[in-house]
Design a protein that fits this description.
By secondary structure, this protein is α/β, with parallel strands linked by helices. The protein has two domains: about 120 residues, Alpha-Beta Complex (Aspartate Aminotransferase, domain 1), CATH 3.90.1150; about 240 residues, Type I PLP-dependent aspartate aminotransferase-like (Major domain) (Aspartate Aminotransferase, domain 2, 3-Layer(aba) Sandwich), CATH 3.40.640. It is about 35% helix and about 15% strand. The chain has a seven-stranded mixed sheet, sandwiched between helices. Strands 12-14-16-15 form a four-stranded antiparallel sheet. The longest helix is centred in the last third of the chain and has 19 residues. It is globular, with a radius of gyration of 21 Å. The structure holds pyridoxal-5'-phosphate.
């Protein structure tokens, strides 16, 4: 029954071999820049590609400061530190996300609160956040507290699922009203825009990831985006061992981190950025092909970008009718060497987070039983 889909994938990817979910595209200046690193000996934490990569990303996202990091998970952790999250604070986020979001919160011994996503975006729902806050939160001397747990609610971390922008403007408003810091997990949404503005630039801090399966890759890597330049400069300081600049002295004025991205990874990043527009255009075209293919399908619905948004379509997603057909589709496609996968196990169901507060997660569970990601690499 899903045979036609397998044929369609083989035709658009023009192959009879295994089709991965998302392979990196490395056909630009990657090799050349890596050779430059090796020839110059600048393979480690100092080198021109680090600065260049930050500048390229700052320009592309129209941020006032971009700071590279060794990976997206550590960038998220640092972002939470930078906005003042402390032990025992509560952080509002979604259960429908990759584990990194929840792990970063746990590194500070803060408590994630898992709220529902909405049907249009698959990302954190402003309605759910508002409803939960109006029931549980109160403002005391300029800070937001949970009336039941007595903990401070310090930050909100929406995630732009599969590159589809969340309703970020409404979340900005709610966070302002409740004195909550907004940190955007934009790890999946490089090249995604909400009303023409790049995702990750609405909150106090935004975080990107360049892991091997993301839209562009640096092997491993992440980036922090800031509108507040001073906070960005402080992030750079903290991520480089908090060393006070001096030609020979080693003086440090804070507990810093060794989170600086090595030059060889940044070299890959620069080469990847040169091809970003092409990669995005190619992926957008794939999305249009899927949209057309599934148009009249009554069993499978293709998930499209939300209105007022431009999605990078990092991972294409379809919705099956129920758990049973979801499993059948997964089995058939994977049996036929087409890689597909269900959505992540919900954070609220994992052992480490099973006692965390939730709001019932109606839409989240609805998606969990239906979503399957389908091949999304650049096509040749
Ligand atoms: C990829 C990803 C991250 C960061 O992952 P790293 O592999 O550490 O770069 C964070 N959050 C989400 C939602 C992600 O998909």
């Amino acid at each position: 029954m899903y045979n036609d889909f397998v044929k369609f994938i083989r035709s658009i990817y023009n192959t009879n071999d295994f089709v991965p979910l998302h392979a990196p595209y490395l056909h630009g200046n990657e090799k050349k820049y890596l050779e430059e690193c090796i020839d110059s000996t600048f393979v480690s934490s100092v080198g021109k590609f680090v600065d260049r990569f930050e500048e390229m990303m700052q320009d592309y996202t129209k941020s006032n400061k971009a700071v590279v990091c060794v990976n997206g998970t550590n960038a998220l952790f640092l972002a939470l530190k930078l906005v003042g999250v402390e032990r025992d604070d509560e952080i509002l986020t979604q259960a429908l996300t990759f584990i990194a979001t929840a792990n970063a919160i746990s590194y500070i011994s803060a408590h994630p609160v898992f709220l529902d996503v909405d049907r249009e975006t698959m990302g954190l729902s402003p309605e759910s956040v508002k409803a939960w806050l109006s029931e549980n939160a109160e403002i005391r001397s300029g800070s937001c507290f949970n009336k039941k747990t007595e903990r401070r609610i310090k930050a909100c971390v929406p995630m732009h699922t599969f590159g589809h922008p969340v309703k970020i403007e409404q979340l900005v408003e709610i966070c302002k009203e409740y004195h909550i810091e907004l940190v955007e997990d934009a790890a999946e949404s490089l090249g995604s825009f909400y009303k023409g503005q790049h995702t990750g630039t609405f909150g106090r801090v935004g975080v990107l990831s360049f892991n091997g399966n993301k839209t562009i890759t640096t092997g491993g890597g992440g980036m922090l985006l800031f509108q507040d330049e001073a906070l960005g400069n402080y992030a750079k300081h903290l991520s480089t061992q908090a060393k006070v600049p001096h030609r020979w002295e080693f003086v440090h004025d804070d507990i810093g981190y060794n989170y600086r991205m090595p030059n060889i990874n940044a070299a890959l990043g620069c080469a990847q950025m040169e091809n970003l527009d092409m990669i995005l255009a190619n992926k957008y075209e794939t999305a249009q092909k899927y949209k057309e293919y599934f148009k009249n399908n009554t069993d499978i619905t293709y998930f499209e970008e939300p209105c007022e948004s431009k999605s990078n379509y990092w991972l294409n997603a379809v919705l099956l009718k129920d758990r049973v057909s979801q499993n059948q589709f997964l089995e058939y496609t994977n049996d036929n060497a087409i890689m597909t996968r269900p959505i992540w196990a919900l954070m609220s169901k994992l052992d480490m987070f099973k006692d965390c507060q939730t709001d019932g997660l109606t839409n989240t569970i609805w998606f969990e039983e239906r979503v399957v990601n389908i091949p999304s690499s650049v096509r040749f």
